[in-house]
Amino acid sequence: MIPGISSRRRFSDLTEQEVLALAISSEEDDARIYRTYAHRLRADYAASAAVFDGMATEEDQHRKRLIDLHQARFGDVIPLLRREHVAGFYARKPIWLNEGLGLDAMRAEASGMEQQAAAFYERAAARTTDAATRKLLGDLAAAEAGHVRCADGLEAEHLSGPERDSENADARRQFILTWIQPGLAGLMDGSVSTLAPIFATAFATQDTWTTFLVGAAASVGAGISMGFTEAAHDDGVLSGRGSPWKRGLASGTMTMLGGLGHALPYLIRDFWTATSIAMVVVFIELWAIAWIQNRFMDTPFWRAALQVVLGGALVFAAGALIGGG
């Protein structure tokens, strides 16, 4: 390969046989993706798994029709041509990048896959002047559009209203257990527990840079500690709380951000300006915690606000008294 020169072919330069080979490999890839989705969902969302199994079967049937067409026109040897070999062709994410997709995201991704393929073939057909190639691309576009209708039909067959509502409720519960709950615990710990050391240092030294260093160290250290603790104490198998590394990431990141929020103002040199801004940030953090508790944990807002504001005020007072003494 010459440096600076792309090794990928342009779609417009492909022969009809190569376009057909590209369509065959694309159908194979999409069938694998749908079967992977079905495998991941089968234990918790059986109805949605059945939808993806059906979509994979449809892809297999279209692939077989394409192979039959290739054998009739060009013989048994199918050129090795994949999406990544063609410049400008729609691409699929590597499957490991889709590991974190939730149920709704998988449904949306599948719909987008089919619509993207159909739109690509339609645009390609509109650009060609060769009648045979135009017909081939039009047939492929129709096939992909048919996949979208097939997916809708499969959802209607396997996902009744109550089943969809139940799966959506389970997905929301899993999202809360895996991301919201650990993240909220981290935000509360980072926002509240760092108040005392940060403001004690601030009032004891009135040195903004020293205060920032103490706050940054406390926040990063607390984030690492909370992240490892969350990931290590529960593997999620029995509790059903989901992947430990996801929970650890949520808890550790939010803990660190919660502490850094009121440490960063001390990058300002003027002590009282920095302290005033830090107090405003603390107020915003505490109300954000109350909102999250109300929004996702069904805690009455007044009760959540009272708990976090009272707790934060006590910790702040302790830090100010210790630092001022």
Features of the shown structure:
325 residues; mainly alpha; Ferritin; 2 domains; two-stranded parallel ribbon; 2 strands; 1% strand; elongated; disordered N terminus
Secondary-structure blueprint of this entry?
Layout: E1 9-10, H1 16-41, H2 46-74, E2 86-87, H3 103-127, H4 131-158, H5 161-193, H6 195-205, H7 208-233, H8 244-263, H9 271-296, H10 301-324
Parallel strand pairs: 1-2
Instruction: Tell me the structural class.
Output: mainly alpha
What kind of sheet is the major sheet?
2 strands, parallel
What is the string of helix and strand elements? Answer: EHHEHHHHHHHH
Shape: elongated
Supply Rg.
Answer: 28 Å
For the termini, the CA-CA separation is 71 Å
Strand content: under 5%
Count of discrete domains? 2
Classify the helix fraction into a percent range. over 70%
The chain-level mean pLDDT equals 79
Strands, count: 2
Given as residue ranges, the uncertain stretches (5+ residues, pLDDT < 50) are 1-5
* Order of strands across the main sheet: 1-2
Describe it.
There is one protein chain. The protein has 325 residues and is mainly alpha-helical. The chain folds into two domains: 9-159, Up-down Bundle (Ferritin), CATH 1.20.1260; 166-324, no CATH class. 76% of the residues lie in helices and 1% in strands. The protein contains ten helices and two strands; from the N terminus they run βααβαααααααα. Strands 1-2 form a two-stranded parallel ribbon. Helix 1 runs antiparallel to helix 2, helix 6 runs parallel beside helix 10 (301-324) and helix 9 runs antiparallel to helix 10 (301-324). The protein is elongated. Mean pLDDT is 79; it is low at 1-5.
